[in-house]
From TrEMBL:
InterPro entries: AltA1. It comes from Paraphaeosphaeria minitans. Residues 42-164 form the AA1-like domain. This is AA1-like domain-containing protein. It comes from the Eukaryota. Residues 1-15 form the signal peptide. GO terms for cellular component: extracellular region. The lineage of its organism: Eukaryota, Fungi, Dikarya, Ascomycota, Pezizomycotina.
Amino acid sequence: MNLLPVLLLAPLALSLPSPHLHRAQNHTFHLSNLTYSSTLLYSTPSHLAVSSATFSFAFSNPAAYPAQCIGHSSGQTNDAGFFAWPQIFTCTNEGAAVGHVTFAWDRYGGGVLSVKQTWECGGDTYLGTATTDVRLRCRTTFWQNPNFTWPDPGWPYSAADTTCDVLDLSVEPRVERLE
């Protein structure tokens, strides 16, 4: 076997970028269809019956795999109380991806969204982290039962529904190879 052609091509092969390193360095986190909504339902003027909020988005990273991200918050007496601290939520990977995506949204702390993703590429594991401000444009609709009487209240006493415009965001993560 003649090794001369292989030896002549070796310097060229060493000078080309690794497709795995290129994939790890060529990335953007895309957060699409980012939505927020909340509902507050009062059974009487002083009794909160149900309160919940949802923050969700579709996550994609060209260097890895997509995921669906959904966070829930409940038990608040007004809309401003939902997602008032950066609770960590785990996203659902699409397909049989190795790794995971997590996020935390601190609505009270200025709307800062933190996203982390781990993925494998070429036998290496990578961690991408990014933060961005989420500025929502929301509307709240209030309704109050005009036929509410005590002690025989009609159901419900009042409701408040908040919905926000859908956002699409892209953010450049900081990527590191894990040991």
